[in-house]
Design goal:
Layout (H helix, E strand, L loop, with lengths): L9 H4 L1 H13 L10 H31 L4 H26 L1 H18 L5 H39 L15 H48 L11 H10 L2 H6 L15 H4 L6 H50 L4 H40 L11 H13 L5 E2 L3 E2 L2 H22 L1
Antiparallel strand pairs: 1-2
């Protein structure tokens, strides 16, 4: 059972976010604020410099191996997978580090309204929030399990077989025990470091998209509930008791009708005690929060647009190259298991990004219909038509997550990447034949 309503603090809502931020700080991707002790800030700088040295050393050895063995398609494909994965991870780390001074403001702009939404007495809204928190917990434990299983499998299997985790060419003889241990440390550290940082950044990004989508859904119902005849509040004690008693399995069995939001909901604390009953004032409040959510999505695109473009290209290479190695060299058990694991991880990562982007776009597209259903035609205020028209123009502009400003993250894009991966896969198998 998961309780999210009774005596729930802000920390419990952001508990997985706080853990993820702590991981990025410990890894050197994010820095501590000025109120933190000097020892922690020095440690963060040390981790950033040390990790970059290890990562650069790792990538250079992989590049060297790929160049030397460019005529061997299997070796080149294997090295290409790791290089593509590194480039995806590094682009996201660079995006976070470049925006580190505005990162917490960005986080707060997305999560602060959710803290207010959780204080609502609307049954449908509380169910939506609980469902989001449940999925957030599932995502966190899944990505944690992924890091532990994949990282441990790579390192332990290499130790058992007595070889390096990945192919590479070092400027020293790795058959000498001391140099072998140094090479093994570089590769093992890089594997664990990038796995942890990459899935942590992805997790934070997915939750930002999830809670932005939730706010778009609430905003849609706010437009519909601008008229005052459907705003009878639910008894707070009854609602909180009911939500707190729900079991996890029950959340998935509740139909969509019970998840409809029937109250005009506040996004800010000062709005909670001052919700107007006037249609025009409510509609203006909706427009204000719509503009705020447009800025949130814009900030997200400004932060991740380039790295998402790299994500799409990297996913394409990882899927097609690992698929090629799985099919072409099935007799190599070690290579088969590793390639299958990377193939599934690349597929799942791309699916997550596109699914979240698809949900956000769908909810944003629903805003126009919600505005039309707001009951504006029954309002006798002067200028209401101009207000509605101006608001609808904003909703008709696409609100979506874009990769490089070119590709929209939707399920159509996901299928397009899979088709392109298959085309490259066919090309590779034909060239090999």
């Amino acid at each position: 059972m998961i309780k999210i309503i009774n005596n729930t603090s802000v920390e419990s809502h952001r508990r997985f976010l706080d853990k993820s931020i702590a991981i990025l700080r410990f890894s050197g991707v994010l820095s501590y604020d000025t109120s933190t002790t000097g020892h922690l800030r020095i440690f963060t700088i040390f981790m950033r410099v040390f990790s970059n040295i290890i990562v650069i050393s790792y990538v250079l050895t992989m590049f060297a191996d790929a160049v030397v063995n460019c005529n061997d398609l299997m070796i080149f494909a294997s090295d290409g997978c790791f290089i593509a994965g590194w480039f995806v991870a590094y682009s996201k780390e660079a995006a976070f580090y470049r925006k580190r001074h505005r990162f917490f403001e960005f986080i707060d702009n997305t999560h602060r309204p959710v803290d207010v939404l959780r204080q609502s007495t609307d049954l449908g809204l509380l169910l939506d929030v609980k469902e989001c928190m449940l999925y957030e917990a599932i995502d966190y434990y899944l990505v944690s399990l992924f890091v532990i299983v994949l990282g441990s499998a790579i390192i332990i299997s290499s130790l058992i077989l007595g070889k390096l985790p990945n192919r590479a060419i070092f400027p020293f003889d790795t058959t000498i025990p001391v140099y072998y241990r140094l090479a093994f440390f570089i590769q093992a550290y890089n594997t664990v470091y990038h796995l942890i940082v990459l899935v942590t950044i992805d997790f934070i990004s997915w939750q930002l998209m999830r809670y932005t989508t939730l706010q778009l859904r609430v905003l849609s119902f706010n437009y519909i509930n601008c008229k005052g005849d459907s705003l009878i509040p639910v008894a707070p004690d009854l609602t909180r008791e009911y939500i707190g008693a729900l079991k996890i399995s029950s959340v998935f069995s509740i139909d969509d009708q019970h998840k409809e939001i029937r109250q005009f909901t506040a996004f800010e604390e000062r709005e909670m005690t001052n919700i107007s009953v006037n249609f025009t004032e409510r509609f203006k409040t909706c427009v204000k929060h719509h503009l705020r959510l447009i800025r949130v999505v814009k900030d997200f695109n400004d932060t991740f647009s380039f790295s998402l473009m790299v994500q799409l290209g990297g996913s394409l290479l990882v899927i097609c190259l690992n698929g090629y190695m799985v099919v072409t060299f099935p007799g190599d058990r070690d290579n088969f298991i590793r390639s299958t694991a990377y193939l599934l991880s690349g597929f799942t990562q791309l699916l997550y990004w596109c699914a979240f982007g698809n949900q956000l776009k769908f909810q944003a597209d629903f805003l126009t219909k919600s505005q039309w259903m707001s009951g504006w035609e029954n309002s006798y205020d002067r200028g209401i038509k101009n207000l509605v028209t101006t608001a609808m123009i904003k909703t008709m502009q696409p609100l979506e997550i874009r990769a490089g400003g070119l590709f929209v993250l939707t399920m159509e894009t996901f299928l397009s990447i899979l088709k392109s991966s298959y085309s490259v896969f066919v090309l590779l198998t034909t060239a090999n034949d």
